[in-house]
Amino acid sequence: MVDGAVLQNILHYGPVFLLIAARAIAMIETAPLLSSEAIPQVAKLALAGFTAFAVMPTAAVFAVEGTAAGAAAIEGWRGVAGTGAVMVPGEGGIAFLSDLRYEPFSFRFLLLLIGEGIIGIIIGFFLTVIFAAFSTAGQFFSLQMGFGASETFDPLAQVENPLMGQYLNLVSMLIFLVVGGFRELFLGGFWRSVQSLSVSALIAGREPVISLLASGLSRLFLDAIIISLPILGTLFLVSLTTGLISKAAPQINILSEGFPISITVAFLLIFTSLPFMTEAFARVIDSGFASLQSLYAQIGQQIEGGRL
Predict the structure, then answer these.
(1) In a domain? residue 307
(2) What b-and-e string marks burial along 17-46, b requiring 16 or more CB atoms within 10 Å of the CB?
(3) For all residues of the chain together, what is the average pLDDT?
(4) Contact at 8 Å (CB) between 133 and 280?
(5) Burial of 137 by CB count in 10 Å (0-12 exposed, 13-18 middle, 19+ buried)?
(6) What angle do CA 174, 287, 292 make, to 5 degrees?
(7) SS3 of 85, please?
(8) In the chain, how many domains are there?
(9) 295 in a domain, yes or no?
(10) Which range of residues forms the domain containing residue 276?
(11) pLDDT for 255-280, tens place per residue?
């Protein structure tokens, strides 16, 4: 049975809860793995609601400073002193979570709701760009292997993807789970954003946000090239060797002999380099979360504590 205090807090701070939930559902709908259509929409909404309620007591960007006037205003608004206002850490000591600034069913609240959704989309989209590097790396050498015409629908990436792109995408998802990606996503990504990043801070610091997204897109191709370069370079040498053999011995059917050689060499390289590729995948994921937290530190409020 749900405790009455839980429902009471949600009802008292309904506008704040709705704003945080909008940020959470926007992040879930765009983040890798969570945005899959295989996950029911009801489960996504439930996860967003639970996440919003869990982080609401620490939502410093939605708080008013804990001055005597602020406390009196909160008590006066409720009509009863000691209504159990949620207290969060503030710059001057204690701050009170309040919905005095958020009038529901107003145009200003609608704009705030859209802004919270944009923040969630930025978080999820940036992580999606990072994961796109893995499938892009597979696309780079799929054509050289002879799997260029083997595109099928990838349920994880939600796009048409070559066979090797799907394989690397699946490996990256497993590594994401092993390294605690969901913990980093909800604690280091979402919870930190609720503690430090508000809509006004996003508007004021839009240049760092644009720079972060642009650098993420450029790093996508750089990471994909670095991951696929050993296999791509070796397959290039194989193609060059088969071309020289075809010139030296024209009677050999290189078209029928070259594809099995390329496929065998590529699978051997993937098998031998997979431990190193997993380390590279983990470093790329960690660098993505580090970039998000550096953005929070750059344009958001200063918060205590280090990296989660």
Answers:
(1) no
(2) bbbbbbbbbbbbbbbbbbbeeeeeeeebee
(3) 75
(4) no
(5) buried
(6) 105
(7) coil
(8) 1
(9) yes
(10) 4-299
(11) 677 777 888 888 888 888 888 888 88
Task: Calculate mean pLDDT across residues 167-187.
Answer: 85
Helix (H, G, I), strand (E, B) or coil at 154: strand
Backbone phi, psi, residue 2, to 5°? -75, 135
The three-point CA angle 27-33-37 to 5° equals 90
pLDDT (average), residues 88-93 = 48
Would residue 305 count as lying in a domain?
A: no
Please tell me the predicted confidence (pLDDT) of residue 305: 46
Q: Which residue has the higher pLDDT, 88 or 221?
A: 221
In this structure, the chain runs to a length of 308
Q: Is residue 173 classed as helix, strand or coil in its secondary structure?
A: helix
In this prediction the pTM is: 0.74
At 18, which helix (H) or strand (E)?
Answer: helix 14-30
CA–CA separation, 121 and 116 (whole Å) = 9
> Half-sphere exposure of residue 218, counting CA atoms within 13 Å on the CB side?
6
| β-bridge partners, 93 | 90
Contact 182, 144 (CB under 8 A): no
Q: Is 61 inside a domain boundary?
A: yes
Cβ(215)–Cβ(130) under 8 Å?
no
